[in-house]
Amino acid sequence: MTRPVLYEATVPYCRKALENQIKLLRKGQEWCKENDYDETNLSNGRLVEDMMPLPSHVTFSTFNIVQFLVDLGATDARPEEIGGEGLSLDELIARVERTLKVLDDVDTTKLVAKEQEIINIKLGKFSIERSALKYAHEIAVPSLDPTHMDDLALLQCVARCSALALCLIAGGDAVAHRPPMDDTDTNTNTNDTSQNEHSEKLEVSLHDLDSMMSRPSGQNRRLEDASAIKELATSCKSLCSRVLAAAQDSRAPKRIGTSLNTWKASRPAVGSSRQGFELRNLSERLQDLQRSLTSQVGKILTNCVTISRRQIRQMQLDSRRFQCRESARLRILSRLLRSLELKSRSLQQESSDAILSPDDINLFQNQIRKMEEQQIYLKQDHALLKSLAFKSNVARHDTIPEAHQQTFSWVFTSNKPEEASSSDYSLRAWLERGSGIFWVSGKPGAGKSTLMKFIADHESAQKALSIWSAPKRSIIVSHYFWCAGTQMQRSHNGLLQTLLFEILRQLPDVIETLLPARWGVYHMSSWTRDELYQALSDIISRPDLPVKFCFFIDGLDEFEGDHLELCRELMTLVKSENVKLCISSRPWSVFEDAFGSGKTGYLRLHDVTANDIVDFVLDRFGQHSDVTAALTRDESQTLALAISEKSQGVFLWVSLATKCLLEALLLGYSYSQLLDDLHQYPSELDDFFTYNLETIPTGDQVRMATAFLITEAAERPLDIGIYYFHEMEFSDPEYVLKLSPEPPSRLEYRRQLSQTAQQLEVLCRGLLAVDQKTGTVNCLHRTVRDYLDQAEIKAMLSSKAPSGFAPTLCLLKASAAWTKSSRATMSEEPKSEFLSCITSLLVAAAQLQRSEDLALCKQLLDDIDDCLVAKGPSAEESLQIFRTQVISHQLWQYLTDIQTRKPQYFDTLEVPPLVLAVLPGYEIGEVRDRRLRWDNATKNTVLCLFDQGQDPNKPFSTAETLGAKTEKTPWVVLCEQILPQHDDEHAINIRRLQSHLKLALETGILGTFLQHGANPNARCQRPGKPVSVLATDYLLHAFRFRPEDDQTLKELYLKNTHWFAPKEADHLNAVINDFFRLVERAQGQGDPSFLQQVSENLLTLSTQLQRRK
Which residues in 660-743 belong to E strands, given as ranges? Predict the structure, then answer.
């Protein structure tokens, strides 16, 4: 059977490249033996300083070849990682041979008629679609054994052959028509030697040309280009062969005598002969061929420049997305690209007489190779940065207000503020000469976050720190804890990932050096806290580090975890002379004990901002013409001083008080009335919040109270749209079911939300603020959130709300209305807003407990589902997202009788419901590590799905990597998350999965699957691993336990062993015998006592089976 075109376009090229690598590596071994040279020096060598060592070249090519075949669906093998530092030549040869074995095992039937199959290729957050053949031509082949490199190599051989042939015609010299030398025997012998050398070289070159032409032509370039290059090579071979034949004939014995026994000596006689005419003709044709060769090289370079420009542009975009400093690699890439571009243009613009030598082409090849190497490094750098980045790592920084233009100017002055006590230490002095930790403490609302942002972003801070770090460069790294944000924004991992990410993005040229264990890893698993801390410690303790770090860490009191442990960890970090820390927090005792009492640099912010407050108030007054008209300068100054004194250094209090005074002034209040009002304002922030809310007109207090109550009840900031629909409830409690599913126009929608934002600002006295970037509503400050969390404040707000008001139920209704009428339900609209809608809805639904609330929830969810179904094909994607999220949020009460109400409910889902229940948000093809959070709701959802006929063993289509389709079952997907493969040697992976196994056993999820028919002997193929049997994985996991491991997990493991033991006596006895042999072989490793318990458990099961017989 004829092999498919796609096979011919890929596999032969890959095989040839690998075979050549093995030849080179073995030749290197032979040379080392012959010259008594250490192979290690050769394997770790680099051609030039900034090139990758030999193992990197080999491992890169083997990785890319396998990954390429995976992308085309030709193999299920997993690429081995790039890197290979320290591998011997034998190990490199073995790796190449393993890759050749992958090529041997390629199933050609998988590639038949696959040329036009569409493949979706993800490029960062974008994606493109290509047919498989076009993918091979445009993307995959150029990146591993590029077509242009093959063509250049062929053309270089053509150039060498044609140049040698012309030298033969010219008599062995580069000049074609130099005068004949004296007809002497000496000259004859000398030129005989020269002619022989050129003939031999041409003969070798023609052999190389023939070998290169015999390679499969493939389909990886334009047909006209391939035809032109092949024709050029064929013509060159023919012409050079004729020249070589003529040269060999001329060296045969001649009738004209021994002194004319060479071609050189016979040239005068031949010049006028037929042979001389033929040689001149060959010379002209070879020169024409060289000009055609130059044209073809120009085309190749143009194509190469086009491809490289696109690839480099993507890397530049990735670099900007990570906010990286410009790396040397990007500069090198840009310089090489410009050089190639200039040469390409030059070749196109030069006259037809331009001739390229083999060395010229070799130079182009080297430049292209160097560009590809730099791209490989950059891709690995960006992959590592991506593993550390998370969406919200800069969100808190962006929400912190900018410092007022005249505040905090004292930070970078020589002296400390006049208000500072003698124990306070000049922050500028610490930046320039200090070490260790500088602690900024302050009351809630004093402006600590604003100060930290001001310093970390100010260029004067960098200048001051450069004095401390000299002669090294100083780098500022900042992190802002935020208790109202995501889990990462208030966690230990979030801190460590941010610090590492910020370090690496500012040192892009040494990422590989700083994190060698992670750099080049193919499948980047999630970072553990221990890994993060160890990586950070390794970096800051490097003696050869050319930089020093100043970490700015804001809001230690907003950290969610053990504050004492955090303090100890920070104090450990500053033991390195390469690091110092500026931290901020409220003056809690845990921080006072760690950083106060003269132990570190120390500043009480609320004690030093009196002048800043006066400047701030006067500036606000000056922005309103009514103030300057109604108050004299002295009166404004007096009010500003009074505000500063009463605020006790709390900037938030100042901002609110100033706003209240300006509102009173606009109502016509006099100076004396303003001063009286100011004296009545409570000085404590919480009391001032209440005072402000009490001034709201009685008619608006109900809406104010409900707005605050739903804000407090929400798990995360709500979209402004929620508040718009919430307003409808006051006129009609049943508004959701009556709401039209037709969305408003974009213009009307924006107008509605803008109006709602303005009303909310007035209604809540500025304590709730709308983020203009995201459209979400946040508390003005953390102190507002703390205020709303107080029981007495909740009671006060509830007393003002309608009788029986339930914030969660109100959230449910408003979210349902928002979801129902969202424009994002339509196919042409982005789905991020729709996903945000239904997330708010389903989070609220999951909190309901009362039966009447659950009944209403079921009614609302059914209504939304029916509306999406009614919208037809345009809302199919939204319907699938909605149903997927319902299951992922584990709304088991709603799903209890869903098959009765909606018989085809599960038919629209790509991912089986059982998978979504245990792995919320699971996507086809995902291989990421997950942090599992299972509870009773998870188990109830699984049980509910089993009750409605879901099969744990029913296969569904999935994809481990692009283009490699496989099938799995929900049961296998679950086991991949909780059971390590029995031969897995990765300790971190084993510990992680072991914690997942405990969770599955504790919650009963594993047992529930098995009770409902899950196959314990199912075969499982994890990414990059051979197939294993789940029962084998479970039983052999016993050997991984250590004496110090969790006893509860061991007990749970033993209780569930019977599920995975064979149910036939003979089979079980065979397993027991194998298990005993492994125990003997373990020789005290692992946990001998536990292995004894497992053995006894298996024997008991065997006895029970025998009795049943």
Answer: 718-719
Encoded tokens for 365: 């090849």
Residue 111: the pLDDT is: 63
- Cβ atoms 1094, 1054 nearer than 8 A: yes
Structure tokens belonging to residue 440: 């900024």
Q: Is 589 exposed, middle or buried (0-12, 13-18, 19+ CB in 10 A)?
A: exposed
d(CA 50, CA 470): 27
* Residues shown for the chain: 1109
- Summarize pLDDT for 487-526 with one digit per residue, the tens: 888 899 999 999 999 999 999 988 888 988 887 665 566 7
- How far apart CA 711 and CA 720 sit, in angstroms, is 11
Report pLDDT for 278.
79
Tokens 């007022």 identify what position? 404
Identify which of 831, 841, 810, 817 has the alpha carbon closest to the alpha carbon of residue 743: 817
For residue 773, the surrounding DSSP H or E stretch is: none
CA-CA distance, 61 to 1093, in Å (whole number)?
49
pTM: 0.69
User: Which backbone phi and psi does 922 adopt, to 5 degrees?
Assistant: -55, 135
Closest CA to 960 of 979, 973, 971: 973
CA–CA gap between residue 778 and residue 606 (Å, rounded): 25
Tokens of 20: 């050549």
- The backbone torsions φ and ψ at residue 549, rounded to the nearest 5 degrees and listed phi first, read -115, 140
Among positive and negative, which fits the CA dihedral 165, 166, 167, 169? Answer: positive
Structure confidence at residue 173 (pLDDT): 39
Burial classification of residue 956, based on how many CB atoms lie within 10 Å of its CB (0-12 exposed, 13-18 middle, 19 or more buried): middle
Of the candidates 802, 811, 654, 825, the residue with the CA atom closest to the CA atom of residue 731? 802
| Rounded distance between C-alpha atoms, residue 259 and residue 272, angstroms | 20
Nearest CA to 719 out of 629, 835, 617 is that of: 835
Separation CA 960–CA 561 (nearest Å): 36
DSSP letter (8 states) at residue 123: E
Per-residue tokens: 221: 């370039």
Measuring CA to CA, which residue among 848, 757, 834, 427 is closest to residue 608?
Answer: 427
Per-residue confidence (pLDDT) for residue 475, from 0 to 100 = 94
Tokens standing for residue 897: 């009788």
- Say what angle helices 876-888 and 851-870 make with each other, to 10 degrees: 160
Residue 699's contacts (CB-CB under 8 Å, 6 or more residues apart) are: none
Q: Which amino acid is at 745?
A: S
Contact indicator for 440, 451 with CB cutoff of 8 Å:
yes
C-alpha–C-alpha distance, residues 1106 and 1109, integer Å = 5
Angle 834-837-843 from CA coordinates, rounded to 5°: 135
With tokens 């696109």, the residue in question is: 310
173 phi and psi angles, rounded to 5 deg: -115, 165
- Residues of the chain with confidence (pLDDT) below 50: 1-4, 50, 122-128, 137-146, 172-190, 218-221, 254-272, 420-424, 960-964
Residues in a beta bridge with 437: 581
Contact 1034, 1060 (CB under 8 A): yes
Q: How far apart are the first and last CA of the chain?
A: 55
What is the predicted pLDDT for the residue at 119?
A: 61
The H or E element that residue 1036 is part of is helix 1030-1036
CA 1074 – CA 1053 distance, rounded (Å):
19
Residue type for position 402: E
Q: Nearest to residue 832, comparing CAs of 759, 758, 774, 894?
A: 774
∠ CA 441-444-449, nearest 5°, is: 65
Report pLDDT for 72. 72
User: Distance (Å, rounded) from C-alpha 973 to C-alpha 911?
Assistant: 11
pLDDT value at residue 172: 44
Asked if 10 contacts 69 with a C-beta cutoff of 8 angstroms, the reply is yes
Amino acid at site 578: N
Which segments within 363-510 are labelled E, that is strand? 437-441, 473-480
857: left (phi over 0), alpha (psi -120 to 50) or beta: alpha
